[in-house]
Amino acid sequence: MDRMSVSDWIFFEQTGVCVSACHHGIVQTLVEMRRSGELAKYALATANKLMDVYGPNNMTGYDIGCSFSKTAATSSIANKVKSLNHRFIVNSFHGHAHNHSCQLQYHTLYQEGLGIEDLETCKRIFSGSNAVAPLIHHASYFHWLQFIDLQFDQWDQDHYQELSKV
User: Fold this and answer.
1) Which one of 28, 74, 119, 156 is least enclosed by Cβ atoms within 10 Å?
2) What is the per-residue burial (b if ≥16 Cβ within 10 Å, else e) of 98-123?
């Protein structure tokens, strides 16, 4: 009877990745999601890291930024969010589906300093990474990590080069 190693079980626990990116399209954080799917812990960990790196008076766009603001306000990072004046807002596309009062407070259109930014960069990143999925679908955990690293490193290099074009 064949036995599975710990690394084999780790592979089955994976449910995807959670990324954050700046408005230039450069990946800022990448978190491997395990078992639980899209829970607040991944977004909270990402927000915590972004606040550590970028400091006060910043915003994070999130599909559910309005409800996530309430989650963050009652979480372990609540004091940091408040003291750094960090705000969570709704991406442009999702914002149009929200009620009027929610749009006025959380939609990108009404945020000073954002310009015409739609905050849909992560959707473009995932769209660009779709070609990798068939390659890593049956890969070992090591090769899965290797391909993910290569994919997002190449993505960053391509977008970093675009910053210097005139």
Assistant:
1) 74
2) beeeebebbbbeebeebeeebbbbbe
